[in-house]
Structures are given as structure tokens and as C-alpha cells.
Specification:
about 10% strand, about 290 residues, alpha/beta, 12 helices, 8-stranded mixed beta sheet, Rossmann fold, N-(1-d-carboxylethyl)-l-norvaline Dehydrogenase, domain 2
Amino acid sequence: MSGKTVAVLMPGDMGHAVGRALGQHGHRPVTCLAGRSERTRVLAEAGGFTQIDSFRTLVDEADLVLSILPPAAAGELAGQVAEAMAEAGSFPPFADCNAISPSTVRAIGKTMEAAGAPFIDAGIIGAAPGRDEPRFYASGPDTAPLETLDGCGFRVVSIGPEIGKASGLKMCYAGLTKGTWTLHTAILVAAESLGLSKELNDEFSFSQAAALNQMQARVPFIPADSDRWIGEMEEIAATFRDAGVTDGFHEGAAEIFRLLTRTPFAEETRENMDRSRTLEEAVTVYAQHLSHED
């Protein structure tokens, strides 16, 4: 797929890094920023995107569309792109790469199928290209358009023809990673509220050093992403519920992210967050923003 035009919607933390990696491998990353924030515009410039003024023009030029954005917006975006395809009479393959449940991705797949566009279910695991080599797990009747991007700063791994498999894998994986971060946060905030932070920290230092190291590395810095991760936890909860497993763990995780959105640290971005903040400083502030519902 050398030298093809790949639309990335939208160039946030992951999307702009994917676009930059594609450009470095001879592709042309494009996007449409109508209605997007100034931060997204800055990231799009950093990713080397060609900016296109409308979805209609974008789908007419694109050889492949990648949807990479907060999960709560995935369905609406797919609908807008489907309408643009109908207007343009152009139907490039559409890969939904968002952190959404199998049932949500199947509904989006039906939207794209009705529009006449080939659909790929994809789930991204790993940090953005440049910081990691993320894996794009892909499923669907024809994953070849996405597979041809394998090696462009990320891996593409096809796991079969069934829509929902790739998203299900992403949900299970994120259920561990982000689920663990929120469990750590909940434990530490509870201890702070009970006046037991020092005693618990001392015991963790003695008997749970590896877990404490993980807490120190992650817990002070997750508020910057907390707002968009609420929807991801809700999608994981839906995935587990559909699988016959309790959704309570990740409904609780969503509540922890809601707590973090109330802290002043939620105003930070990955570019400007205070990386010197300690675990103790963060947890003290988190506990101050507890409400009765938490």
C-alpha cells in the first residue's frame, strides 16, 4: 500500500502519532478538523497531516479511513463518514480502531455496510508509535487494507473474519491495564480517607514493592486522560456483561475516572502535565474531591 492516502480521524494522542508514522513510511496522512479543538489542530500539525476541509472531500481522496478517537464519539463519527461517502459516491475501507465493545463495533459495522464501505474491526494495544510499537489487532471479512500498513511504526495482526473479535480482545486487555490503575487509585484514596496512607505505604514498601512501583509510575498522572477513559470503562463493562461476567469491576473503574475528572489535574494534557508530582501529593488531592456517591 505504498504511497496511499490514509485518513486518520482524529489526530489525538494516538492518532497523530499514527499519522506521523505513516508519513515516515511513504504514505500521505490526511484528516478533517472541522469542529475540533486547538490542541487537536496542534497535534495534527505535529503529525504532518494534510488538512482537508470536509468529510466528503476526505473520503473521496482516501484509500483507507482509520477511526481513532474517544469511544463515546465512535458511533457519531461513523455516521458522519457514512453520510459523506453517500454524498461523494466514494467508499474507502473504514477501520474502527476505537476502544469499544463488540456489540458497539458490530453496530458501527452495520452502518458502514449500509453505506457500502468495507469494514474492519480493529483494536489498538500499546503506546503510540514513537514510544512503542503498538499492535493493531484486526478482524473482519477482509482485513487486507489494514494489514498492508503492517510495519509502518506499528504491527497489524489479523485474528479472523468475525467482526467484534478485535474489539473484544482490546476490551479484555484494557480491562486489566486501566482496570488495575483504577483499583490502585481506589485503594489509595480509601486509605487516605481513613487516615492510613502512611501505614499502608509502609506495608506496601515491605510486601508489595512491585505494585507500589506501578502505583508511583501511573496513579499521579492518569487524570489527564480520565475524561475519555470513562467511556472506555463503560464499553468494557458492556463487553463483560454480554459475556456473562460481572460488569461491576469496570462500572466502578468508570466512577474512579469520574472522580479524577473533578480534580485540577484533569486540566492537564500529556504535553504539559507535572511529571514531578508524587503519588502522595496526587492521592491527597484525589481524596479531597470525593463525593458521597464515590
